[in-house]
Amino acid sequence: MQQPNANPNHLPNGFSYQAQALSAQKSLDLFYYLEQNLHWQQPEITVYGKRHVIPRLQCFIADENVNYAYSGSKLIVEPWPDVLDAMRKRLTAQLQIPFNALLVNLYRDGHDCMGWHSDDEPELGKQPTIASISLGAERVFKIKHKHTNEQQSIVLQSGSCLVMNGTSQRDYLHSLPKQQKLKHPRINLTFRSIM
Ligand SMILES: O=C(O)CCC(=O)C(=O)O
Ligand SMILES: [Fe+2]
Q: How large is the C-alpha radius of gyration of the chain?
């Protein structure tokens, strides 16, 4: 069983966590709305020369002028649903970041996951700010320093907002490990600003 070991108020540089950015009811309503209404895709990736579908579903939403190369894994680009456009505007006002794209992940249960990575594509700029909203099942989120390999984990609650900015992508990897016993789904929204 995975346990959190980090105090969410004392995360590494560039990570900040707000537990209740959205109310429990709003988070649940939004979860069901998005689960039903987004056009979910399961793109393929190549790992060691073999094609695999990714272990989760995705939807990529962006402004029309965004450079679509970013959705590299051949995701179809969708327009903003009103409810997500409203959320984008609130986050843009709060964080002073012109968010123009949103990657949505649906983890159907604890078998779905995301491996270690940094969101450090050149299109995101040098010190990107990413706002990550969680809806539905709680999941463990791991952070690992690229040089010391020191790891921390926190539990991302439904309705929470994790902001990654500054040197977080340069210095750390993050991942969402499998939690084999978990039966419930989770949706994660990562708002991004693509140059
Ligand atoms: O699901 C999460 O909390 C992480 C998502 C993530 O790291 C990403 O979309 O780049
Ligand atoms: Fe990420």
A: 16
Residue 153 lies in a domain: yes
Beta bridge partners of 18: 161
State how far the alpha carbon of 68 is from the alpha carbons of 83, 101, 169, in Å: 22, 10, 21
Instruction: Give me the residue label for tokens 């990570």.
Output: 15
pLDDT of residue 71: 60
Question: How many domains is the chain built from?
Answer: 1
In a domain, 39, yes or no: yes
- The alpha carbon of 131 and the centre of ligand 1 are apart by a number of angstroms equal to 10
CATH code of 107's domain = 2.60.120.590
Paired tokens of 140? 């463990």
Report whether 13 contacts 168 (CB < 8 A): yes
Question: How far, in Å, is the centroid of ligand 2 from the Cα of 119?
Answer: 5
- Domain extent at residue 154: 15-192
Ion ligand 2 neighbours (CB, 5 A) are 119
pTM tops 0.90, yes or no: yes
